[in-house]
Specification:
The protein is mainly α and 75 residues long. 65% of the residues lie in helices and 0% in strands.
């Protein structure tokens, strides 16, 4: 497992927080919202991507068209 500072989550959180603290382009309430929502959304997206990558894929169901294309089932 990587140390915390080597993860993308760490850098997204740090960058967003620093921007929210020192960017001053948004009102304080919006800055707090950005500093909370962006890292949370990134973490949720990463969790979904990792879960999808780790899930075993089931074989595709047989297509009725596939038999027609290969000539299977012709009498």
């Amino acid at each position: 497992m990587k140390p915390g500072w080597k993860t993308t989550e760490f850098w997204v959180t740090l960058g967003t927080t620093l921007w929210a603290l020192f960017g001053h382009s948004l009102p304080p309430t919006a800055q707090a919202l950005v500093a909370t929502v962006v890292p949370a959304a990134y973490s949720i997206g990463r969790a979904i991507a990792k879960a999808a990558a780790a899930a075993p894929s089931s074989p595709a169901p047989a297509s009725p068209v596939a038999g027609m294309l290969t000539g299977a089932g012709l009498k």
